Amino acid sequence: MSYPGYGEIAEQLRRSTVLVVANGRGSGSGIIWSSDGVVVTNAHVVRGARVHVQLWDGSEFEASIRSRDPQRDLAQLRIDATNLPAATSSDSSQVRSGELAMAIGNPLGFVGALATGVIHAVGPIPGLGPQSWVQADVRLAPGNSGGPLANSQGHVVGVNTMVAGSLALAIPSNTVQDFIFGRAGNVWLGVTVRPVLIPRSSAGRKTFGLVILEVEPDSPAVLASLLPGDILLGSEEKHFSALEDLERSLRGSSPRALRLEFLRGDYTKVRRVTVQLGSTLPAGGSVAA
């Protein structure tokens, strides 16, 4: 089935998509969110202090990181340029299964690559916490992260972030708008974690935990002296039994203290630490497609 003007729509979206390079190494994609130089991408794409943006016409700019939220995996960049071809965003709450979808990005070094498919669903993914995702049957590869997922009119409904199975997962455009305009989200801890089962007794009993794989520079976790390899067991209010429990403990935007229980080296000795939440987000890193 063909759609009149689809090629022109895709070309316009391509002009609103940029190549993002951090520290001269890995690259990803970004979306021109406003004509005065605001670019949106994933937080995990800009993991260093030096970020460059290349526009569709080949022109390059050094970008400053204006804000960064690893919890939502979003970053706002600013380049010194005006009259840019900004993308048009759409209300992601109106996205429905079966709608046509298109993605633009820079996968594996192919600049401005187009992929098409359909929307599969909108909502949380089991095992990835309570966050809602726009899920699309669109083929993505490393380098697509931070690029637009759009509807058949070329309006952005999400920011492509990762792949789960055969589905592309995009952060909904409404979440991006909340981030851009500073509306409340979860406070930031600054860790990347993975669920593990820990042997705790000779009887073979195992305890659920979240092992810390990475700690963000200048994060609340660093200030509390948490280290990679530490295993989070829970808070004073609740032992963790799923990744979602850590998400729930971080909900809210007000500064506060969170008391965490964790293991370090010795599985028999539970340690406790107080983490001060609600600090300003620095320019640092995260992970994905």
List the helices and strands and how they pair.
Blueprint lengths: L5 H10 L1 E6 L4 E8 L3 E4 L9 E4 L5 E10 L4 E5 L21 E6 L7 E11 L9 E4 L11 E3 L5 E9 L2 E6 H8 L10 E9 L6 E10 L4 H4 L7 E5 L7 H7 L6 E9 L1 E12 L12
Antiparallel strand pairs: 1-2, 1-4, 2-3, 3-6, 4-5, 5-6, 7-8, 7-10, 8-9, 9-12, 10-11, 11-12, 13-14, 14-15, 15-16, 16-17
Q: What does this protein structure show overall?
A:
The radius of gyration is 20 Å and the shape is globular. With 289 residues, the protein is mostly beta strands. The protein has helices spanning 6-15, 173-180, 220-223, 243-249; strands spanning 17-22, 27-34, 38-41, 51-54, 60-69, 74-78, 100-105, 113-123, 133-136, 148-150, 156-164, 167-172, 191-199, 206-215, 231-235, 256-264, 266-277. The strands form 3 sheets. A 6-stranded antiparallel barrel has the order 1-2-3-6-5-4. The protein has 4 helices and 17 strands. It is 10% helix and 42% strand. A hairpin with a 4-residue loop joins strand 5 and strand 6 (74-78). The chain has 3 domains: 6-78, Thrombin, subunit H (Beta Barrel), CATH 2.40.10.10; 92-180, Thrombin, subunit H, CATH 2.40.10; 191-277, Pdz3 Domain (Roll), CATH 2.30.42.10.
